[in-house]
């Protein structure tokens, strides 16, 4: 039961990371306009995401525009898009795999060793998905910091980390942690060894023949 509990904990953490990756990918606030410096117009705030950019006025009005051309987008946006979408797809595959391999499910109940191997594979895929999301968010964040500290970047064109970046980092950590729990749980003693204990106990039967 303890091992099943660890599997359930790992699956729950990874699933929360999966939801966080989806939320981060959809969110607009991947980078937000910076208010550092003197000549900053604070009447509006600008946000840019992977799919669209938005401008928030001081009056509360928000105007968003979806990116028109895919080919005109910067390589950093296209690359981060691909990494985040790949992370979501890998997480979805891992969820389907772990539903079969977890001990709290009835799938493949007659083959416990195979069931543990399936759960282990799902945990590895979760870790890969978390790494993809971590690389995508970190790459985008590195570009923001690089442009912010570039002396040739105009003050009014500098951006800072948006909330979507933090959501992406948190989701990546949850996904990898959950996958790690699933892998560590299966790397130890397998559930298929339990039925063999009575067979090993049968070695005491010759002693009973003397009696």
UniProtKB/TrEMBL annotation:
Keywords: Cell junction, Cell membrane, Membrane, Tight junction, Transmembrane, Transmembrane helix. The keyword Iron-sulfur does not apply. It is found in: Cell junction, Tight junction; Cell membrane. The keyword Transmembrane helix applies. InterPro entries: Claudin, Claudin_CS, PMP22/EMP/MP20/Claudin. It is a multi-pass membrane protein. One of its GO terms (cellular component) is plasma membrane. One of its GO terms (molecular function) is structural molecule activity. The chain crosses the membrane at residues 76-97, 118-141, 161-184. It comes from the Eukaryota. Claudins function as major constituents of the tight junction complexes that regulate the permeability of epithelia. Belongs to the claudin family. This is Claudin. It comes from Eleginops maclovinus.
């Amino acid at each position: 039961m303890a091992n099943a509990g660890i599997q359930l904990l790992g699956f729950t953490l990874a699933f929360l990371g999966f939801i966080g990756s989806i939320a981060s990918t959809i969110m607009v606030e991947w980078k937000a306009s910076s208010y550092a410096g003197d000549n900053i117009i604070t009447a509006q705030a600008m946000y840019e995401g992977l799919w669209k950019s938005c401008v928030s006025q001081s009056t509360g009005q928000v105007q968003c525009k979806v990116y028109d051309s895919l080919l005109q987008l910067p390589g950093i946006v296209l690359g981060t898009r691909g990494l985040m979408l790949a992370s979501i797809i890998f997480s979805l595959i891992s969820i389907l795999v772990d539903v079969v391999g977890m001990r709290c499910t009835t799938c493949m109940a007659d083959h416990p060793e195979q069931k543990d191997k399936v759960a282990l594979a799902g945990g590895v895929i979760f870790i890969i998905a978390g790494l993809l999301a971590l690389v995508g968010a970190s790459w985008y964040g590195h570009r923001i910091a690089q442009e912010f500290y570039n002396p040739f970047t105009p003050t009014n064109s500098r951006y800072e980390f948006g909330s979507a970046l933090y959501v992406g980092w948190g989701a990546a950590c949850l996904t990898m942690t959950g996958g790690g729990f699933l892998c560590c749980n299966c790397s130890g003693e397998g559930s298929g060894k339990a039925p063999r204990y009575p067979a090993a106990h049968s070695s005491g039967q010759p002693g009973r023949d003397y009696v």
